[in-house]
Amino acid sequence: MQRKIGLIYEGKAKKIHAHEDLDKVIIEFKDDATAFNAKKKAKFDGKGELNCQISSKIFEFLVENDIPTHYLGLKNKNSMIAQKIKIIPIEVVLRNIAYGSLCKQTTIKPGTVLNPPLIDIYLKNDSLDDPLLTKERINLLKIINKKDLETISDMTLKINKLLKTFFYNIKLNLVDFKLEFGYNSEERIVLGDEISPDNCRLWDLNQKNGIIVSLDKDRFRNDLGGFIDAYTEINNRIDIFINSKQNKC
Ligand code: TMP
Ligand code: ASP
């Protein structure tokens, strides 16, 4: 029996639609941009398509490098097909350079290199404003067991190494990023959500005089302008890099 195709869930930046195969979903990327837990909102024509295209190319790169992800393929310009997963309600942020909330909440200076990188785990809960968790709070809330949390930390560090190289190849410095994970139908932990300039801080390595040039959602968060231009620039750099690699083969 075929199930009716319909909307399962609408988030701030994406809609999840049912797929006729019950183990899969269709993820549609919206043109909406939100910041500060949706206190700030706007719509940018073409944002959904850009994030879908960027994410799909990054997921393909990660899959080629043995990272298990939910990504199965593109459906169209702004939708991808993914495994249906049970999302683990934590947001895993890895920071290579101190910036953003870390500098607002502590005395660390923006731009400080963090070696080893810092992993911060937040509760995925909009009504509580995604609070920072401790390992003890994670245990207390029984969100995830110790072994699976370790698996996620190890995966995050491995993804960081891969992404740092990926972005370095296109002249971008990966400052920090946020990941989400879930269990697939085989109860395996896989990387979910998206990887795009919405959830990564990316600084242009072509910058001059030590001025930070953000090619990510900070352009919207901090009213810097040139939002779609920045996302388009990243998508173009990725395409040029992928094409140059293919021409070498
Ligand atoms: P933060 O400095 O605001 O904590 O953000 C760290 C990184 O996580 C940054 O790349 C943006 C990303 N992020 C999200 O993707 N979603 C969120 O809700 C937040 C707060 C941050
Ligand atoms: N993702 C969050 C929001 O949509 C916060 C952020 O990215 O700044 O509001």
Describe this structure in words.
- It is a single chain.
- The chain is an alpha+beta fold.
- It has six helices and 14 strands.
- Strands 1-2-3-7-6 form a five-stranded antiparallel β-sheet, covered by helices on one side.
- 32% of the residues are buried.
- The mean pLDDT is 96.
- The structure holds thymidine-5'-phosphate and aspartic acid.
Percent of residues in helical segments?
25-40%
Strands of the largest sheet, in order across it? 1-2-3-7-6
Bound molecules: thymidine-5'-phosphate, aspartic acid
Low-confidence stretches: none
How much is the average pLDDT? 96
Q: Indicate the proportion of strand residues.
A: 25-35%
How many E strands? 14
Tally of separate helices: 6
Structural class comes to alpha+beta
CATH topology (fold) name of the largest domain: D-amino Acid Aminotransferase, Chain A, domain 1
Report a brief summary of the structure.
The protein is α+β, with helices and mostly antiparallel strands and 249 residues long. It folds into 2 domains: 7-83, Phosphorylase Kinase, domain 1, CATH 3.30.200; 89-229, ATP-grasp fold, B domain (D-amino Acid Aminotransferase, Chain A, domain 1), CATH 3.30.470.20.
List keywords for this structure.
four-stranded antiparallel sheet, binds aspartic acid, binds thymidine-5'-phosphate, 6 helices, 14 strands, 249 residues, five-stranded antiparallel sheet, alpha+beta, Phosphorylase Kinase, domain 1, 30% strand, D-amino Acid Aminotransferase, Chain A, domain 1
